[in-house]
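Field log, afternoon session.

UNIT: design team B
ACTIVITY: writing a sequence onto a fixed backbone
BACKBONE:
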């Protein structure tokens, strides 16, 4: 990803390549959001996260819903850090995690709007993967 050729009379760069801008925006969001949401699983300030957990999850893993959410929080924090450090890998981790959340919400029912939003986030995580350095790109 190179800078564009837009410069001032002094030769300074006016704008970054749009691919690079998109990469930085997505990497920033997919670093910060999972870490913030992961930390909130321990405090429940933003939401009561257990209401989004399908009962089948705690029947498969027989622990209280809040304990399950603590584990979810740890995974989300790790995913956010992975995006910051290795965005190509971390973006796939986030996409798979979001797919799991979508499936959970569809099984739970009643939160189809949230599942649709998370589908959009999953697509954005996959876009981050495609924009990440080292990913295979089509020839122009």
């Amino acid at each position: 990803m190179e800078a564009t050729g837009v410069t001032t009379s002094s030769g300074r760069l006016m704008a970054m390549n749009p691919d690079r801008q998109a990469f930085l925006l997505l990497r920033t969001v997919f670093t910060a959001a999972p870490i913030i949401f992961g930390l909130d699983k321990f405090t429940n300030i933003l939401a009561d996260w257990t209401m989004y957990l399908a009962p089948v999850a705690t029947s498969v893993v027989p622990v209280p819903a809040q304990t399950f959410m603590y584990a979810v929080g740890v995974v989300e924090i790790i995913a956010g850090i992975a995006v910051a450090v290795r965005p190509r890998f971390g973006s796939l981790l986030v996409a798979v995690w979001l797919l799991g959340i979508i499936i959970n919400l569809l099984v739970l029912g009643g939160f189809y709007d949230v599942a649709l939003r998370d589908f959009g986030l999953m697509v954005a995580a996959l876009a981050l993967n495609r924009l990440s350095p080292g990913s295979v790109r089509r020839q122009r």
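LOG NOTE: Residues 58 and 68 are 7 Å apart (CA to CA).
NEXT ACTIVITY: expression trials, pending approval
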